[in-house]
Design brief:
With about 475 residues, the protein is an alpha/beta fold. The protein has two domains: about 260 residues, 3-Layer(aba) Sandwich (Aldehyde Dehydrogenase, Chain A, domain 1), CATH 3.40.605; about 180 residues, Aldehyde Dehydrogenase, Chain A, domain 2 (3-Layer(aba) Sandwich). The strands form five sheets. Strands 12-13-14-11-10-16-17 form a seven-stranded mixed β-sheet, with helices on both faces. The protein has a six-stranded mixed β-sheet with strand order 7-6-5-8-9-19, with helices on both faces. A three-stranded antiparallel β-sheet has the order 3-4-20. Strand 3 and strand 4 form a beta hairpin. Helix 5 runs parallel beside helix 6, helix 8 packs across helix 9 and helix 10 packs across helix 11. The longest helix is centred in the N-terminal third of the chain and has 20 residues. The chain is globular. The protein starts with a helix and ends with a strand.
């Protein structure tokens, strides 16, 4: 199947109702998203609560088998969903983009199904035996973002289902159609009520987080919204996993080979056209190789095609929405006014479309400049010169954002020394932003709390219980 229209027809609102969703590259109307109400949300949560005991009673083996079946169903319709995702979100089909995202969905489902969380004997001294086990938390609210709506959705859904929870999904109002379609495909396999999706605006998300029958909230998005979710969920003491905004620093150490690292630096910063929480968003480069790194990155940027995502040649797309486009534009204009050197890019690519902004490298900036200190979440990278490694570490740590960071250098011992001093949930060495279904992932400081992926991810959507005999 290569045409998504039949899948979309299952979920979109009837003509004359709902909300228009536009192609991020062309502005054309793709379809109409349902605008669910508070009553719809209450019904979905009630159905999830009713379905949860029977879903849990199936046991881990049966639930894992169903996750594997879902993965097969997704693979069977991956191409049409990737085309819909490309239009709605803007990311191209090729490169680490739409087809990659659909592949990640099925891969994460399979990995989650195969992950084992064994009971742990914590005391066995001859007098007392205590065993730690994990039970489902109940009904999980999965509130997703617009940048990787399907992959991050699966990151929330798969472990929750695997552990015996039921799930109510709230997609971003910017990218609801692809999530609605994905859930529809998953529900070809799942029992009624186990997984539902409620499409609507911020008020729906706020009500979901505060609902008395929600036992766990998983949220990926901005720090400001994360704080609002904490407040909304306080009344029902829902457990939280919050993966919040990042402003990841990369430190290029003396002796690094600019040509050898340029490609990985580029994709660490500009995967999904920079619209990734754990993208490299500020780059500190030692002055001994500063200009060489700047020029190597320029070469990669100027040879990487940007345009409509359905064109098989492109691997970079538009900024997904006007609000984010305006943030990128504002920060770049401010950087110019402060004397930042535009190495490439620097103004909207209106010849490509309304929301296209070219890859923009801005050299010679400093800590305190807004493009350095604020998360741009788009195709603009500030490059900062440093001469002392310890000062670069201090610069990397000076912000509240602490999702990820990276160290780039030839000496393994020095790389590790620097990595251990960085305040971030994950520190990558000679790469950035690489995730794996068995590698726990989460932020610290203002980038949230709680872990996803692997055994720790299963624990995060469960409640511990001690069996003391």
């Amino acid at each position: 199947m290569s045409d998504y229209s039949a899948l979309l027809a299952r979920v979109e609102a009837p003509e004359g109702s709902g909300r228009e969703i536009h192609d991020a590259a062309t502005g054309e109307v793709i379809g109409r998203a349902p605008e669910h109400t508070a009553a719809d949300l209450d019904a979905a949560i009630a159905a999830a609560k009713k379905a949860q005991p029977a879903w849990n009673a199936l046991g881990h083996e049966k639930r894992s088998a169903l996750l594997l079946e879902i993965a097969d169903r997704i693979d069977a319709v991956a191409e049409p969903i990737a085309q819909l995702l490309s239009r709605e979100q803007g990311k191209p089909l090729n490169g680490p983009n739409a087809r990659f995202e659909l592949g990640a969905c099925s891969s994460w489902l399979r990995a989650t199904a195969a992950t084992v969380l064994e009971p742990e004997v914590v005391v066995d001294d001859g007098d007392v035996r205590a065993e730690l086990i994990y039970k489902p938390v109940g009904v999980v609210a999965a509130i997703g973002p617009w940048n990787w709506p399907l992959m991050i959705g699966i990151w929330q859904i798969a472990p929750s289902l695997r552990m015996g929870n039921t799930v109510v999904v709230k997609p971003s109002e910017f990218t609801p159609l692809s999530v609605l379609v994905l859930v529809s495909v998953m529900n070809e396999v799942l029992p009624a009520g186990v997984l539902s999706v409620v499409s609507g605006g911020r008020e729906v998300g706020a009500r979901l987080a505060s609902h008395p029958d929600i036992d766990k909230v998983m949220f990926t998005g901005s720090t400001a919204t994360g704080r609002a979710i904490i407040e909304a969920s306080a009344g029902n003491l829902a457990r939280l996993t919050l993966e919040l905004g990042g402003n990841d620093a990369g430190i290029v150490l003396p002796g690094a080979d600019p040509a050898a690292i340029a490609g990985d630096l580029f994709w660490g910063a500009f995967i999904n056209t920079g619209q990734t929480c754990a993208a490299l968003k500020r780059l500190y480069v030692h002055d001994s190789i500063y200009e060489e790194v700047v020029q190597a990155l320029k070469g990669v940027a100027e040879s990487t095609p940007m345009g409509n995502g359905l064109d098989e040649n492109n691997v970079l797309g538009p900024v997904q929405n006007r609000k984010q486009f305006d943030i990128v534009s504002r920060l770049v204009e401010d950087a110019k006014a402060r004397g930042g050197r535009i190495v490439t890019g620097g103004s909207p690519a209106t010849e490509l479309g309304e929301l296209f902004y070219p890859i923009t490298l801005v050299a010679d900036l400093n800590d305190g400049d807004p493009l350095v200190d604020e998360e741009q979440f788009g195709p603009a990278l500030p490059i900062i010169r440093y001469s002392d490694v310890d000062s670069a570490i201090a610069s990397a740590n000076h912000l509240d954002a602490a999702l990820g960071a990276s160290v780039w250098g030839p000496d393994a011992d020095e790389n590790r020394r620097v990595a251990l001093q960085l305040e971030a949930g994950t520190v990558w060495i000679n790469k950035h932003g690489v995730v794996h279904p068995m590698m726990p992932f989460g932020g610290v400081k203002g980038s949230g709390y709680g872990l996803e992926f692997g055994v720790e991810g299963l624990k995060s959507v469960a409640v511990p219980q001690i069996i003391n005999t």
